[in-house]
Specification:
Layout: H1 5-13, H2 25-61, H3 65-69, H4 71-94, H5 99-104, H6 108-115, H7 118-135, H8 138-161
Helix pairs in contact: 2-4, 2-7, 2-8, 4-6, 4-7, 4-8, 6-8, 7-8
Length: 163
């Protein structure tokens, strides 16, 4: 049986070399921390997957009416927010803080510029960052926050590039 791509990622980080030696104490500690947090990571990932539609709808409903009327920018910003959240959730699950950033950086800043979504993105992500701690446990949110912030930094970077 071939290991899944997710487990390969975690194991690759440990640089397993059974022909040379056992894992050292630091590697054992890293593996133990990841394995110990895996249940919380899985629960948070499942919750985000199940709540995504309602969460996004709630975020959109909180936007000012004039922002909701700009449908082209709003639709694009919603798509971007969903992808950022999904990549952050996957990054949290596999313990790869920059997974989303790496996958999004090739096109997200361009889309923000082309569709001029920066104001909508800013409002949606501010609201998202307020809502997630209410939906997840403190531990789960602490696991999700670094990959989410890494992906959201692309939005800030694209806004700075246009100034």
């Amino acid at each position: 049986m071939t290991p899944s791509p997710l487990s390969q990622h975690v194991l690759r980080q440990l640089a397993l070399k059974p022909d040379r030696s056992y894992l050292n104490a630091q590697e054992m500690n890293s593996l133990g921390q990841y394995v110990g947090s895996l249940a919380d990571r899985m629960r948070a990932y499942r919750q985000l997957r199940e709540w995504e539609v309602n969460l996004i709808q709630e975020l959109v409903d909180r936007l000012p009416e004039d922002v909701q009327k700009n449908t082209a920018a709003l639709e694009q910003s919603i798509k971007q927010t969903i992808l950022i959240l999904r990549y952050a959730a996957l990054g949290m699950l596999v313990d790869d803080v920059n997974l989303g950033r790496r996958r999004l950086e090739g096109w997200l800043p361009t889309m923000v510029e082309v569709y001029q979504t920066e104001p909508v993105d800013t409002l949606l992500h501010h609201s998202l960052n307020q809502q997630l701690p209410r939906l997840l446990t403190d531990t789960q949110f602490a696991l999700l926050k670094p990959p989410l912030e890494a992906a959201q930094q692309l939005l800030q970077t694209s806004g700075e590039d246009t100034v």
